């Protein structure tokens, strides 16, 4: 038997490839030497699928092959025209190239979805694909391709959760979405958690018309239905009713309100000429070594500023129990929980990609992009937090009976 590498077919293909290389012609574009290989492979696969489809049962119904059609597929190796087989009954649904498919998904779709997840517009992706692969793909087709992510988004949103998460941050981002010809506001609720191994995990992402304690209640209810039984420490902003919503679902959770949010809210009601010296006195409160010392400094703050800014001081006093829980822990845990900076940092990473967008075409278009961005970000969440081995032991002692690790 002759060596395949010396066959006339091989020699002809080799010579054609060399000729195309010398002339600068693409091997993978229209008329490229690889196009017939792809065409032959796809047509052979479709023929095999038809043989399976035309089983003895189908033939007994009178079904049989009924000629061939013609279809042009867009691939990263250029346009390839194939002749898919038809059957008499018209119920043949091939898998490798579906009936109305015009883009070879296994070849080009992952690239398109990857570019979309980096924040490129459908129009820019269309131009990029044409420039890189000499393939024209309309924004409409690109939208259909990116819509393949939707089942993954829904599956991810409904995936089972661990029974307990030691630390959870809850916060929302805000975007504009087109709805019924109008541009409306949407709040995207995100729940960022630390799992038992000390790794970050976005355990929930939901969308609503606005941020409020009522919707947070439905979010927390959904987390519970997915298997979450307990949260040790929940870090939140100062949204009214938020703590009550959390405690109604997870009554043993320790609430830590964000100190930074409290400071920002306070400064809104302090005259600009007083802000610098007010902050100097306020730092003595939240940067104290112990809760007892912090409470002494809070009394001093009230004595100095109470008459001039009574509403500000009253807010600190009324929220003190949930603002001061971080004093129960040593420095590493304090840094984790006294602010919602962890989830806000995640939001900043998301906005780097979404900031070029105007109003999204739909709620799902918004969720679809944030899901893909989150998928890219989470690839870096493979290692536990710094000093987690020491932190987790403190949490096991502090929450004995509610939290333990396997050793």
What attributes does this structure have?
single chain; 407 residues; alpha/beta; 2 domains; 5-stranded mixed sheet; 17 helices; 9 strands; disordered N terminus
Write the layout of secondary structure elements.
Layout: H1 8-23, H2 35-53, H3 56-60, E1 65-68, E2 71-75, E3 78-82, E4 85-87, H4 105-117, H5 122-133, H6 139-146, H7 150-157, E5 164-179, E6 182-194, E7 200-208, H8 213-225, E8 230-236, H9 242-249, E9 254-257, H10 259-267, H11 272-286, H12 291-305, H13 310-323, H14 331-337, H15 341-354, H16 363-378, H17 388-398
Parallel strand pairs: 5-8, 8-9
Antiparallel strand pairs: 1-4, 2-3, 5-6, 6-7
In order across it, which strands form the biggest sheet? 7-6-5-8-9
**Helix proportion range:** 40-55%
Would you report the number of β strands?
9
Largest sheet: 5 strands, mixed
- Alpha-carbon Rg, integer: 30 Å
| Envelope shape | elongated
Low-confidence stretches: 1-5
* Total helical elements: 17
Listing every helix as H and every strand as E from the N terminus to the C terminus, the arrangement reads: HHHEEEEHHHHEEEHEHEHHHHHHHH
Q: Give the structural class.
A: alpha/beta
The domain count comes to 2
Q: Kindly estimate the percentage of residues that lie in beta strands according to DSSP.
A: 15-25%
The average pLDDT is 85
How far the N terminus sits from the C terminus, by CA atoms, comes to: 63 Å
Q: What's the multimeric state?
A: single chain
């Amino acid at each position: 038997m002759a060596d395949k590498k010396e066959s006339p077919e091989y020699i002809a293909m080799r010579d054609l490839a060399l000729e195309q290389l010398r002339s600068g012609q693409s091997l993978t574009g229209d008329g490229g030497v690889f196009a017939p290989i792809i065409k032959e492979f796809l047509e052979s696969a479709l023929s095999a699928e038809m043989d399976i489809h035309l089983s003895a049962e189908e033939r007994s119904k009178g079904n049989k092959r009924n000629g061939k059609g013609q279809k042009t597929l867009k691939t990263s190796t250029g346009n390839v025209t194939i002749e898919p087989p038809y059957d008499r009954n018209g119920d043949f649904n091939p898998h490798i190239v579906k009936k109305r498919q015009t883009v070879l998904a296994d070849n080009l779709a992952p690239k398109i979805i990857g570019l979309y997840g980096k924040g490129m517009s459908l129009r820019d992706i269309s131009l990029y694909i044409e420039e890189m692969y000499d393939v024209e793909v309309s924004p409409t087709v690109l939208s259909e391709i990116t819509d393949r992510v939707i089942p993954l988004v829904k599956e991810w949103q409904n995936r089972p959760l661990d029974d307990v998460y030691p630390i959870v941050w809850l916060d929302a981002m805000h975007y504009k979405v087109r709805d019924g010809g109008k541009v409306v506001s949407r709040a995207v609720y995100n729940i960022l958690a630390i799992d038992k191994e000390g790794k970050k995990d976005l355990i929930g992402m939901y969308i609503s018309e606005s941020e409020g304690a009522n919707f947070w209640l439905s979010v927390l209810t959904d987390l519970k239905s997915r298997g979450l039984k307990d949260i040790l420490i929940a870090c939140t902003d100062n949204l009214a009713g938020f703590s009550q919503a959390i405690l109604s679902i997870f009554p043993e959770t320790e609430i830590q309100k964000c100190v930074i949010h409290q400071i920002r809210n306070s400064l809104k009601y302090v005259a600009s000429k007083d802000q610098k010296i007010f902050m100097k006195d306020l730092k003595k409160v939240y940067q104290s070594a112990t809760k007892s010392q912090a409470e002494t400094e809070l009394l001093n703050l009230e004595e100095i500023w109470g008459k001039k800014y009574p509403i500000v001081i009253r807010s600190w006093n009324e929220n003190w129990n949930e603002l001061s829980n971080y004093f129960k822990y040593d420095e590493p845990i304090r840094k984790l929980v006294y602010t919602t900076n962890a989830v806000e940092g995640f939001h900043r990473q998301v906005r780097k990609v979404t900031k070029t967008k105007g109003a999204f075409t739909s709620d799902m278009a918004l969720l679809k992009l944030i899901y893909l961005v989150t998928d890219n970000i989470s690839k870096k969440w493979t290692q536990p937090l710094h000093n987690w081995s020491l932190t987790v032991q403190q949490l096991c002692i502090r929450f004995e009976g509610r939290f333990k690790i396997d050793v």
